[in-house]
Amino acid sequence: MSSSTDSSDRNNRESSSDDDYYYGSWRNVFSIVQKWKATFNGDRHESIKDFLISVKSHQQLTDLGDSELLEALPCLLTEPALVWHRLIPKEWTSWEHFCEDARNVFRHSEKYNLELLEKALARKQTEDESAIDYVSELHRLAGSGCANQTLVQQHASSSAALRPRLSELVEEQEAYEPPPAPEDSTVYRNWLTIHRLKVYVGRMKFTPEVEGDVSGMIDEKLKEKTGDRRSVSGVSFSSSGGARRCYRCE
């Protein structure tokens, strides 16, 4: 009788030890994944590509294996992506296997971003719209498709979307580069403001009477808007007398 009781107690202790190990291990994985702050909800405004890249980069900095990462997926997904995860059969044998399925299901988010950029490219300036308002709206459309990108990536995307057809009076300065430390958001914003104003100069239609000192007018606006002393006078204009204000400069 005593022997049977001892055996039962030993089995219970082993079972309890296994449970503690399993749940302790799971809690450890959960705490690691929670610190990543990487989530995906499946909304068309979110990029599945950026999410997968973010998770993979975090995984490489930890000792989590693919199986642990797959088990931790409920911690990384929110509705409706979480509902999709709950409903489908779980047949993934590797992280790449899951990534392939996720890309196929949530590809619409990438398509939506492309639609925003195409909309920005098709946007035309109206007759009663100032150049600054026009470029701000154009950049908003392009930028909304790049919400999850770094500052450098946003610049590359917006530059491509905002690049104007230059008039014969305006020469684009390809050598004008972003500041050496784009991580400094203040410096970058000042530089981007200069870039936008350079772009809208390219959109303006000048008559011989207002060609003269437009670059100086732009420099004044830069000082008012950003406090940046740099000049955008690198765009070339043929000088021809005194300057007059154009309604598109207001």
UniProtKB/TrEMBL annotation:
Highest rank taxon of the organism: Eukaryota
Protein name stated in the entry: Retrotransposon gag domain-containing protein
Species this protein is from: Nasonia vitripennis
